[in-house]
Amino acid sequence: MEEIDRRIVTLLAQDGRMSFTDLARETGLSVSAVHQRVRRLEKRGIVRGYAAMIDHDAIGLPLTAFVSIKPIDPAAPDDAPDRLAHLHQIEACHSVAGDESYILKVRVASPVALEDLLQQIRESANVSTRTTVVLSTPYEHRPPPLGDGAVPE
Amino acid sequence: MEEIDRRIVTLLAQDGRMSFTDLARETGLSVSAVHQRVRRLEKRGIVRGYAAMIDHDAIGLPLTAFVSIKPIDPAAPDDAPDRLAHLHQIEACHSVAGDESYILKVRVASPVALEDLLQQIRESANVSTRTTVVLSTPYEHRPPPLGDGAVPE
DNA sequence: GCTGAAATTTTTTTATG
DNA sequence: CATAAAAAAATTTCAGC
Fold this sequence. Notes:
The structure is a homodimer. The first copy, chain A, has about 150 residues and is α+β, with helices and mostly antiparallel strands.
């Protein structure tokens, strides 16, 4: 991927609703050229999709936590992500190196809801949990650094 | 916030580029009514913005890690988020309960880049670090559960 | 706050160099 | 990849209830 595609990706990461007209102005390309590139980036999966960023306080999910999980039976097949996928309070699931096997990011309405969710996680995936509660989030969803730091391809 | 706004938020969280026409069809409102509501949700900050979701492998940042930090001097004023904000490889910063004070989510190009970033974090904020490397991400950015689980207002 | 409709702008496609 | 043109669709504004 080269310079202009990288610029387009950066712009869309910052404003997913930016118009092709604006993208064209920012990149110096014509509208059709930008259009073509964006479609190609989407098709290749470099742009995976678009999402509105939501204020979780406002929608009644003010409590965020990171839940690290570890299998009770280390010999059992590890299909925890599949077994947890139905729990929609889990926003993300990362397989990680280290003592524990996955880190989950969860959003819930209250401490009681967290307690309930943890129980469901333990039951669903036969794991033990270790939970770190988020107190506040100074920043989140910052766009990736493409002009500085990363040297793709 | 009531039912229809919640539905709009859910739809936009799943597809940040959904048109007002489609939102109108999905909610049973007129286009102008939906338009009005979306603008109001944006103005109130319930919808914070829109972002393209990017494949970090494709843009040369294939390595994700969680970095927990702890101040070297517990008596010093805690302005770590400000002091780290210039490091664009930090995608998110959460203040957390527990032994450590913040969890950072970082994206870098390589192990060496991670090593370099960790050093910059320690120097910039006068903290010690504990790093958990992400091996794979079964899922991420799942939309919040508004029709099930949460009971806003 | 909603509807319906007009005015404007953007998106999308197609063609040509 | 640029330009151009045309058609389709979406955004935005506004009168009226």
